[in-house]
Fold Class I SAM-dependent methyltransferase.
Amino acid sequence: MKGQEWYQATEVAEEYDEKRFSRGGRLIDRREKRAVLEALGPVEDKRVLEIACGTGRFTVMLAERGAEITGLDISGPMLQEGREKAQQAGVADHLEFMRGDAARLPFPDDYFDTVFAMRFFHLADTPAKFLSEMARVSKNQVFFDTFNRFSTRSIYNWLLPMGSRLYGRDEVEDLVSGAGLSLVDAEHDFVLPYGLYRQIPDWIADDLREFDTTVGSTGLGDKLASVSYWDARV
């Protein structure tokens, strides 16, 4: 997986949320959480697995809503940040964080109601293998996001230290089909790239986001979107 050593560094884990989801980045955090909540629906008493849970942003959020959730990640320092976040939220007894490899999930077939991954497939070197494993352990839903090839992200992607794997819709549909899944819904957002939001203060980011969503609601929105959220069923 791209950036595996970087991602497991303690200093990266400690600064991860602050660097990505403060200032204008809070709008990204808000949109991603809304995407997960809308896709998963009511989660109380549902068994949920989050792949590449990182610092536990979504894991803790869903635990607070009554899910029986497991967060899996390859980074020990990231998981430690998640455990501390769960303690602060008072849900440490209602979730489990596990260190593991998403290519070899340590769970039996059809074990979870929902399996999801956010900010994972842009780093995946073998996306078909990861998605097949997610489908194997889910008895119902698989949800994930991608960065899109034909978008503003493609303009600067080569400048990023790790780069990103960018996807076209046809490629995602082939991956979904190859994993034995059926695509039931897709949403597309952020005509402007994530990186721009992180570099600007809140008051500018709010106006920029309003412009972004206005353009996104037009006929060009889906074609220009840099991020897509994919909802599939087993």
Summary: The first helix runs from residue 4 to 7. The chain has one domain: 4-233. The first strand starts at residue 47 and ends at 51.
